[in-house]
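User: What would this chain look like folded?
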Amino acid sequence: MVTLNGIGVVGAGGEGRALAAYLASRGLPVHLCTRDTRVASTLNARGHLKGEFPLSLVTNDPAELLACCRVVFIATVTTAYPEVAAKLAPHLTPDHVVVLFSSKLCGSVEFSCLLRQSGVTGVDVVETDALFAARPDGDDSVDVLGMKGWNLISGATPGAVDRHADMLIEWFPMLERARNPIERGLTDFGAVAHVPIALANLGTIDRAEDLLFYAEGLSERTVVLLEQVEREFGAVAAVYGARLLPMTEVLDRYYGCTTTSLLDAIRSVEPYKAIQAPQSLDHRFLREDISSTLVPLQALAARAGVATPMVDAAITIKSAIGRADYAASGRTLARLDWEALTHKEILSRI
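Assistant: Here's the prediction, encoded as structure tokens.
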């Protein structure tokens, strides 16, 4: 893979900054594309990743970024993919590879569809999960609370993964190949946890009261919400040729934890201990996981004849509270170009 004189990172939130600092720490020249060009050309990283990491370029111009970067990481929220794809499309060529950093369920498939709708073909799109628990601080800093010790990679097509897996694993040795994008997308503790924990604390979050999201947001009784969602994730994965690890093991591979129970595991994950709950029910935490994981999960489950009552309830409740139709506006099968496919045809496609 020719990288020319830079690796591109699109997005300068906590994840984008942590990613940029990490790549720079490995001696790679990093070019950052962000709306907010006040972000400094040297990132000061604290916490798990420490040091000052120079950036080769900070720009708000996708053309400038793609002119010198053949590998481009997208570290924005997944609900911004239509906007990001539209801005990048005029400047992408088959020499580029797009790497989604936190794609949720079948993000690489959606992004490829968005590019095709813009007339762009031949661009490989691959994906992994967000690998950092990180928060931006001012214009030049990022607090890296933790870095995952394991995760999966997949892509819009098996060929895309074949062509770029070695490159990604060289840069991120903790990565392994998933069986398919559904396995990668459902191996996501945040997607299992964020919405059920929020539902168990609706009033507290809506009143913007202080709450340690993971440390205080669950009890022996309410953790059953997560356990039910986890079972539904596993049932859907199984009918699409995927196998999910127990979430206790996922958390242990991520950060290390106590694995005696899911509640014990959550409470013992070091980076989670200080994470505050959102102070709004419209937080991207919830919109993103509903739109980009639970909605496509529900649609894939229905196509395969698998019942998902807890996921269905979560989408219904969040839609009512947010006065939005997430089942229509989220990552539908139509947005994956799978609307006309049967379960067996989707399974064959992936």
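The mean pLDDT is 95. If you want, I can go into more detail on any region.
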